[in-house]
Design brief:
With 249 residues, this protein is an alpha/beta fold. 27% of the residues lie in helices and 31% in strands. The structure holds S-adenosylmethionine (SAM).
Length: 249
């Protein structure tokens, strides 16, 4: 077993996509029922569009939003991830763009910007995460919404190794968390029935829910809803996850 790398290491933003694009939908999109709830909730918040899905990966949210008649722009650091998205979108309904957070390119305004599944955590610095919230606030239409879906920081959870089975793949996760630097590395191993083994490291800068709310407030965004899941149950401090809906003035 390889050692979990130093959480202080900065890695290329393309790395995640290079390592995960080919089996992301198989191994990472594990709960289609939840994805449907996500799409329902986002569609109800989207207004007239256009919608921007950042760090969109293979488009599990972006593609079904276009089926609701919304114009959707999906950005990601990874050309490989966006290639997977386009392969699932033969009519080219989603506009894709390779783009690095915290930037939002172009100059159009969006009625909804979505940051799903801890995707703000891919940015290694607090200042970059805050910069993204400021940029998003500037790029929303009046009354437009930013939705951020993320977990709470969980040092006890990172300390425990986990093993689980999915589609015949034996997965394990070990993590290293540097609380002073607020940097985290998850190391996933995937052992397939044919004996092949893949080891992948995901480098993150977890943002506490309180920090997210404070930075969004500083960026001029008003918290409209805080849910504990995509079924829109109310969030309470201490819950493991938040779906935060912020509104621009
Ligand atoms: C957790 S995955 C995507 C989750 C996706 N929003 C979803 O819900 O399926 C994180 C994504 O961030 C992308 N990514 C990593 N670093 C990035 C960066 N600096 N800018 C933009 N995208 C980045 C990866 O390529 C990957 O597709």
């Amino acid at each position: 077993m390889s050692a979990v790398p130093d959480p202080g290491l900065d890695v290329s933003p393309e790395l995640y996509g290079q390592e995960w694009a080919d089996d992301y939908d198989e191994l990472e999109v594990t709960d289609p029922v939840e994805t449907t709830a996500m799409v329902e909730a986002l569609a109800s918040l989207a207004g007239p569009g256009p919608v921007l899905d950042v760090a969109a990966a293979t488009g599990r949210v972006a593609i079904p939003l276009t089926w609701r008649g919304l114009r959707v722009v999906a950005t990601d650091a990874s050309p490989a991830m966006l290639a997977q998205l386009r392969a699932k979108d033969p009519r080219g309904l989603v506009q894709t763009r390779v783009e690095l957070l915290p930037d939002i390119g172009g100059n159009e305004a969006f009625s909804l910007i979505a940051v799903i599944a801890n995707s703000l955590w891919v940015l290694p610095e607090a200042e970059q995460q805050a910069a993204f919230l400021r940029t998003a606030a500037e790029r929303l239409t009046s009354g437009g919404r930013l939705v951020v879906d993320q977990y709470e920081i969980n040092p006890a959870g990172y300390a425990a190794s986990r093993v689980w089975d999915l589609h015949g793949v034996r997965f394990s996760r070990r993590s290293r968390y540097d609380s002073a630097a607020q940097r985290l590395v998850h190391q996933f191993t995937a052992l397939r029935p044919d004996g092949s083994l893949r080891v992948r490291n995901v480098h993150l800068r977890p943002m506490a829910v309180g920090e997210l709310l404070a930075e969004a407030d500083r960026a001029g965004l008003r918290l409209e809803h805080a849910w504990r899941n995509w079924w829109r149950e109310p969030y309470s401090p201490g819950d493991p996850r938040v779906v935060a809906v912020f509104q621009a003035p």
